[in-house]
Amino acid sequence: MRANLHTVAFTILWLSAANFGFSGTVNQIGSYTNWATTWQTLPSGIGVEAHDAGMAEELDFVGDTTNPGLYWANSNDYIFFRMRVDADTFTTASGAHLLLIDIVGVGNTGIDYGFAWDSKSNDPTKHGMEMTIPGTNGPTWGASRMNDIDKDPSTKGVNDINGNSRTTDGYVRSIDGQSTTNFGNTTFIDFAVSWDYLTTRTADPIAGRIGLAKNQEWKIAVASIHNATDQNTFNADIGAGASLTDSITTTGWSGPISVPEPSSALMVALGGLLGAFRRRVSLHQ
Asked: For the chain, percent helix, then strand, then coil, each to nearest 5?
């Protein structure tokens, strides 16, 4: 029984290492302890992105089929997204990272919402992690920018992420030292956003926004901004091989994902392994 216990413990440790690596984790916005442990890649090559020479590494999205650049996960309480940047080690940035969402079947193709980590002005009471809506939506990525959902770029309104003194709407962390086959060490930037926040704070019937909710289909894109806040035009990198001069409606987007996420086959397999172990222990007691 002791040998079996060691086997299960090693299996759990190996799975954890495969997802996270042995690396430095920094809580950039808030501190959350129940992050996803199993992540899915997004469809249609969104996680394939070449290294861009001359760009700040912390803003340069990278990934390939061996080590994808974008993942997602979901729980009853939070939705999670993970992007990979080319920084070997990472503690902070000076600019903005944006996870952009197009709700399939709603309005015109393009950005409907975005989660932004504003590290240019990272005061969490005014900036930090923010919910954004389109300010200028195309025609190219380099001509596009986002606005804060609360329409106030200098403070946190009641309907922004972590607005009105709330602290559990959203979190950002970075995990550096993530080894890859073709990019050396990289860094994960992880977002977690509360479903309670999304379903109660993002809709605006007057403005014609239906809000983000479960049982929708989303397309996902990523963008970064160098040395400016999240309300500025995208001026650094766009994911999925898109460039700033490309069309915002036809490039840079993943295939649709359906939320909530189905149960992970990996976690089901692990649950079966642990269940078998418990039954075996019970039989030998």
From this structure: 20, 30, 50
Tens-place pLDDT, residues 102-155: 999 987 778 999 999 999 876 777 778 999 999 999 999 999 999 999 988 888
DSSP state of 223: E
Number of structural domains found in the chain: 1
Model confidence pTM above 0.70: yes
268: part of which helix (H) or strand (E)?
A: helix 265-283
Residue 207's alpha-carbon distances to 204, 211, 281, in angstroms, are 5, 11, 59
How far, CA to CA in Å, does 127 sit from each of 116, 123, 190, 216, 233?
9, 5, 17, 28, 17
E strand segments, 124-216: 128-136, 145-148, 170-179, 185-194
Owning domain of residue 104: 22-274
Domain annotation covers residue 3: no
Check: CB of residue 231 under 8 Å from CB of residue 131: no
